[in-house]
Amino acid sequence: MRHSLRPLLFFMMVTLHQGQGHEAKAASQDTALRVPRQAPDRQLPEVATMPKCRPIEAVELFLNSSETVEVTQDLGAYIFEGIIPEGFPNVIRAGVVIFPDIGYDARAYAPLAHRLTARGVEIRGGLLDHPVIVVLPPCTPCMATEDFDVEQLRPCQACTSLVLQLLGKFELEKWGLIGFGEGAKAASVFAETFYPRVKAISIVGGIPDATANLKDKNMLVQLLGGESDVVFPPDVIAAHLDKLPIEALVATLPNVTHDDFSWHEYPCDTSKNHTDEYAPNSRLKTRDPLVDVLILGNYTTSFYHNILAVETGGVDDMFLVEEPSRYDGFPHQLPKEVLRSDPEYDKETEPPRPSCILYCPEPKEWRAGLSATVFGLYYKEVTAEGLEWLDENSTLTQNDTVSARFDEENLWWVYEGATPYKAGMIMFVGRHVPPEAYAILLRQLARKGYFMVCPYAPILLSPLNAVETGNRVLEQLGHIVDDWFAIGHSAGGVGVGDFCEANTARNTVRSQPPYVRGGIIMAGVFGFSNFTLMAARGDTGAAQMEFMELVGTRDFSRYDEPDDPERCHARIEQSMRTRVPDGHLTEVYIDDGDHYQWGAYGYQFPFKTARIWQQEQIRAGVEAMDLWLMDIVAR
């Protein structure tokens, strides 16, 4: 089996990107989609089904607007929309649709919807998470296999029409889905049908539909289950992983049951004829913190904000939180008077929060939740030209001595050229950029005589497993060439620092091949790696590590900021020179180069555009890297 259920590192993802809105409206009218549509002069049939359980009283708080979230109703659905603070124009909105478990009252998912929306307008380190719109329909959609007259639609098919009408009202091009329980099956079919409009899906306490194949989609996918779930236990989830993309996330939550994912009465007894709308609060001790776990991860985290700071901000925007902090917005947590109404709630027995939030020493481990995967993030699309650099029959690769192959077992690309090789290089990708987008760079480095390996990473965020993956490359391929270097673009620079920091012992006079000699960072900086400090503490390998910073002069700048030729120099001064011992950092600046032309994935918001062609930037970068690498290897 390709995947395994492993300890929880991070959770749900929904990925989104705002476009011009035309695709969003057109998709709901496209007859080629073969989904039920509402006739202009007819009413939709009843779409709600009889709820299995009433929502609990605590849900009512989350059905009302707050200072950060506006809650409205449209076509019977609840719409949660983040209120954008003043001073943040031109922000990208994200869109999320929740597919309730079949038969459950949709309001039972309001706590998650409200808090998710509030999280999207949080400001930390001067950075704003992209505001999110969450659509919570009163029903669970299903897809029709043939066209039906609207009067003949089953309720779940009519619910699909309702959801499409709602999506057509928002100027959003990309959406993400969260499917719960049996609703996850409908969500997976919906995601496959409306790809690429749907760019992400999280399956919570359920499994994808047997007919849905998301494996070949450029889509963020996650399965999240409860360790104590008897409806969809972990072994059942594990049996459905082969149809997921190779970068899918799979995790189980300890001591979580199927009923904990939604806030309804517990135990559920549908035989009772209740007259009141809400049930007494129950299992809040488990359900309340679980919402934070779903949104933020096992630990609250500033991970995503620091990754943004790596790309666009300064070191003042990067921070390590020593104490847990709840996200901004209302409600931060349930009022104590509500919690006290739960007879199970006991503050003294609530699990303690860890003091290590972002980057945990001994061993170091990233703990990333929704903030690393949801707001405004999506997998970049490889451009048509970028794909040609992988095609052996392309005019760009004809008469080429380099071959590119994908290792399906190890999930990495290998670029092999003429031997003997000058050195081996492990490429750590930028934030959510597919490895295929770097073929334009890696093939040209391979032409220069380098053995290139570019691994996949969980959710395509290479800092999450840079050390583990890099070491696996050395174990399996280290015999091919003696000298190895790490290379990373953007957020991949964090991976370069982590990998080299973990392998300083491979850079001493007593070490044996494969050696790790240093790294190249393109358009990025380290995370919290500090080789100067390690050298001062007596680490001779760290003292001898060599690094190159390769950056375009129009990088580290937003599109709406004035040109400042000194910005790049100041950023490197702040973020890199103090982290590398004197004389061991080489800086190369590509005139008029930008942030995203190191890969073939198109424009990347919010950066400035280059004033040179991509091939010119790549050529200059490859020449500079080749000269630097040959000098280091020759020493």
TrEMBL record:
Q: What is this protein called?
A: Alpha/beta hydrolase fold-5 domain-containing protein
**InterPro entries this protein is in?**
AB_hydrolase_5 (IPR029059), AB_hydrolase_fold (IPR029058)
Please state the span of the N-terminal signal peptide per the UniProt entry: 1-21
Give the GO molecular function terms.
hydrolase activity
Keywords assigned: Signal
Q: Where is the Alpha/beta hydrolase fold-5 domain?
A: 425-504
Q: Which organism is it from?
A: Vitrella brassicaformis (strain CCMP3155)
Q: Which Gene3D superfamilies match?
A: alpha/beta hydrolase
Pfam families, alphabetized: Abhydrolase_5
